[in-house]
């Protein structure tokens, strides 16, 4: 494998691999939820569609930049800007996905202490599911059962981790750019 050597180069490669793994996990979970909604004749949640869109673009970007890095053809300054743009997009995803999740306790879903809210949720879901092509509100859908709650919290957690990883890769890109611009002295024989 090529690319710049040293700790900085190894760090960039590791961060890109971790980003790709996290993105693929989010894509799988979000696509599964969208598939469940569509199979029940409901329109998928805008939150999940947006999450899926951002992560698909990001995984493609990670693959391309990793290949360019290995071939020593990565424009580091442009990569820094793109990492920053994806960082902003992932912050938006983390905030939108996490806003209702932060108030939700997955452990108590389905227990008798929340029977009234479960009943209300059941009525909302029944009303929404009875209408062909209707949308189940994201805030209601995430509290439907424990598994959905925990999986959405996993998406939220991975989104936050990706924010950290993209900030770190942007810093690595700037450092790699500065190192590539350093002037190496030429030896003069005379």
In short, what is this structure?
The chain is mostly helical and 190 residues long. 73% of the residues lie in helices and 0% in strands.
3D structure, described in words:
The chain is mainly alpha-helical and 190 residues long. Helix content is 73%, strand content 0%. It has six helices and no strands. The chain has helices at residues 7-39, 46-70, 76-101, 115-129, 138-141, 146-181. It is elongated and about 80 Å long. The two termini are 37 Å apart. The relative contact order is 0.17. The mean pLDDT is 85.
Helix content: over 70%
The largest sheet is:
none
Residue stretches low in confidence (pLDDT < 50, at least 5 long) are none
Name the structural class. Answer: mainly alpha
Instruction: Name the overall outline.
Output: elongated
The average pLDDT is: 85
Which percent band covers the strand fraction?
under 5%
H/E series, N to C? HHHHHH
Radius of gyration: 22 Å
Total number of helices: 6
Distance N terminus to C terminus?
A: 37 Å
The oligomerization state is single chain
Total beta strands: 0
